[in-house]
Amino acid sequence: MPIKFAAIGLNHSHIYGQVNCLLREGAELVAFHSPEDDLAREFSEKFPQAKRVADQRAILEDPTIALVLTAAILSERAAISVAAMRHGKDVMSDKPGMTSLEQLAEIKRVQAETGRIYSVCYSEHFETRSTVKAGELVKAGAIGQVINTVGLGPHAIRNNQRPAWFFDRQLYGGILCDIGSHQCEQFLFFSGTDTDAEVVSASVNNRGNPGKPGLQDVGDMHLRTPTTTGYVRVDWFTPAGLPTWGDGRLTILGTEGYIELRKYIDIAGRPGTDHLFLVDKHGTQHIDCSGVDLPYGRQLIADILNRTETAMPQVRAFKAMELALTAQKLAEVGTVWQQ
Length: 339
Description:
The protein is an alpha/beta fold. The protein is built from twelve helices and 14 strands.
């Protein structure tokens, strides 16, 4: 029998990717809760098999539902995840899983008490074929030992399409907490550690949106482990002329070569997404990753059934958010956003 899952909170469109990564592996979407009629209507059109419930308790108290997904307003995700785990459900949260170190501490405590799986779908890794391929190459020793990463996460802001909560620091948690958490998880993954990393420096600012004082439109951070360093820059300055939402890039430097990912577009070059460039002692090559398997959904289902940690170690889910939240707090010292 396939596992049954449900969604609570549809505020970010990542929920569609979260659902689809499970559906394609045979899981069954049975229900969802959303107080917003417009979001619920769109979700029902896409997934008519899912029953809309007026009260999330109908999901939490259903013993046949094994997994709860959430892409709620960012500050609300922790409470939903805690409630789900306390009702015996495993959780797949959109990133970021929470917006404060206090929320992180509570989720860690409840996860330890309940023994449930708490997974964050870091989609720039798990749902991006070029990143998965890069992981395979690094594991195979294609570039030697990783010593540095540079992660760039530009996004298109599209002000008129963003809800009010998107511009409220208390609700979205800050730019490093939000889109920076993707980069923190990848830094840990390619550095080969799930726990031994720290923030060296961080900054945030509002450089181009004075009419939205709650918005941080650019941020960066430096990270390090005992064997690697990393730089991350995230922003909301993707030009209107780019035919996609952002030119996400990741460069992984090793002792014997490097890999560069152009995840979503090869500007003025090859069509499509998921371009990987490998440079080593033999020369240079381009690898089309469009056919690479995405194992996260399949592995998470297996973890739910077998109580294993193949999709992502539990400690990495927590450590990536710890890095992002620590960087966010450090970057806001002395600013109008200081908490």
